[in-house]
Amino acid sequence: MRISLLRLLSLALCLFLTTAAPAADDRAIFWEISLQDEPAGYLLGTIHSEDPRVVDFSGELISRLEENSFFAMEMVPNLPTLSRLTDYMHYQDGSTLVSRIGAERFALLQAALENYSLPAGWVTRLKVWAAMMTLSVPPPETGFFMDFSLSLRAAGAGLKVVGLETLEEQLSFLEDMPMEQQLELLDLALAEYGSVEQAHLQMVDSYLGGDLEILAREAEQLMDGLKPESKAYFLEQGIYARNRRMVANLLPYMQQGRVFIAVGALHLPGESGLVNLLRSHGYRLSPLGLPFLAPEHGSQADQDRDNE
């Protein structure tokens, strides 16, 4: 399948975007962290997917998870936060989505969202960025995404689950995105929504390759399709600022005990990525192998070919 801006939306709106390719020895998705030769925790790059291949955690991963005192993720998906998310995604001032995007776009959007099982009236007051985000990822089936599944495992093992961002902090770069850019991305999502399932499978396949350089290179190719101002906005507001904030919020927990960190995989590489930022604070990071069982059984594309 051709590289398309739909995959950029999938990456960016799952909040996994960067363009800085990692150094040759910094391609890992899973890292062991130490400080002055003492264990300090782990860093795992995740993908916001419920694909069985990325929630089939190995026994070794669970054992490593249970060694820690804290489980740190981008945002804790508890019920109060999810309730606020619903409000945050909708206009609260009486505005309607059709008034922002026009009747023609709105009709196309409603047709595209038919398979998403949304509550009646959900789309009417949806914000533009939220409509674009919803359409750019496959309809959820189980709700047990990789990061959420890990947090449940962590909580069950007695770890304190903490968020590195608030809901408002995480979504502020979408909320504050200029309307021209929001409409540009919504139009792209509408044009390509029929390929979203295949695009997501391909993204998971790339992730399970376990090489951050490949993911970063794909993101760079996708970013080249954006207008320069959109690309600059994504990088500074969607990645660099968030990385700095996450590390600043993470360090106090790491001073209290061992921390298992699980954040979007493409927040890890590059000069402003979490791997480098943690090293700048004196931590040593050592690469580990993929912590999944399913990759041994081949990619989804391979399985599809076997079933033909």
End-to-end CA span: 18 Å
Question: What is the H/E string?
Answer: HEEHEHHHHHEHHHHHEHEH
DSSP strand tally: 6
Q: Which descriptor suits the 3D outline?
A: globular
Rg over CA atoms: 19 Å
Portion of residues in helices?
A: 40-55%
What is the topology, as strand order, of the major beta sheet?
4-3-5-2-1-6
Properties at a glance:
alpha/beta, disordered C terminus, 11% strand, single chain, disordered N terminus, 49% helix, 308 residues, six-stranded mixed beta sheet
Description of the molecule:
Helix 1 (5-13) crosses helix 10, helix 6 packs parallel to helix 9 and helix 8 packs antiparallel against helix 12 (228-256). The chain is of the alpha/beta class and 308 residues long. It is globular and about 60 Å long. The protein has 14 helices and six strands. Strand 1 and strand 2 form a beta hairpin. Residues 1-24 and 295-308 have low confidence and may be disordered. The chain has a six-stranded mixed beta sheet, sandwiched between helices.
